[in-house]
Amino acid sequence: MTIDNYDNSKQDSSKYEVSGTGDGRNGDGGLPLVQCVARARIPTTQGPDIFLHLYSNNRDNKEHLAIVFGEDIRSRSLFRRRQCETQQDRMIRGAYIGKLYPGRTVADEDDRLGLALEFDDSTGELLASKATTWDAHNDTLVRIHSECYTGENAWSARCDCGEQFDRAGRLIACDHEPTSNIKGGNGHGVIVYLRQEGRGIGLGENSRPTTCKT
Ligand SMILES: [Zn+2]
Asked: Name one GO molecular function term (predicted).
């Protein structure tokens, strides 16, 4: 299997991928074009590791995030093999499987865990498999969250953004929430984190006493 210096000019010429539509790949109208540019594994104080997926898009200069619980929930654009990239390149941008360890050289295979990603050789697209990829037919908890600095980081009681953010994480991580008996994600789920402080008004405006919160 050739895994270094993958060459596919079709993929490289398309910087962004379309989410949710089958046409309009040039971004004229319709939904924004987005591309996952990096993924980082983050240990947490609450138990499970999470993955931060960083996205660029053609609508604003913000780097929006997907906070992903479960390594097997994968980004198609992140994991797609790109022109002339090496396995080292893939590890640097987070397109690897399993866990990194000293001396590891192959992003697409984790020898220690016995896991390997599979790809369509003609397109470079990641192929879903039971061993490596979350089954899309399973229920997946998703929260769309709008950035709120004061609510999330300054313990503000003027809004409940921080509480909602925390609860979303707890629900995704648990099997079920004891107080409500709501079914949790059992370690699988996504918080789409939109970098739009106060729904786009900015931190200065969002900090004014009279501002209606998100
Ligand atoms: Zn808020």
From this structure: cyclohydrolase activity
pLDDT in tens, 27-56: 556 889 999 999 999 998 877 789 999 999
| pLDDT digits 0-9 by tens, 109-157 | 999 999 999 999 999 999 999 999 999 888 899 999 999 988 888 888 8
Q: Look up the pTM and report it.
A: 0.80
Domain ranges of the chain: 32-73+140-198
Which residues are found with C-beta within 5 Å of the ion, ligand 1?
148, 151, 159, 161, 213-214
Whole-number Å distance, alpha carbon 144 to ligand 1 midpoint, is 14
172 CA to centre of ligand 1 in angstroms: 21
CATH entry 2.40.380.10 includes domain 32-73+140-198? no
Q: Across the chain, which distance is largest between two alpha carbons, in Å? A: 61
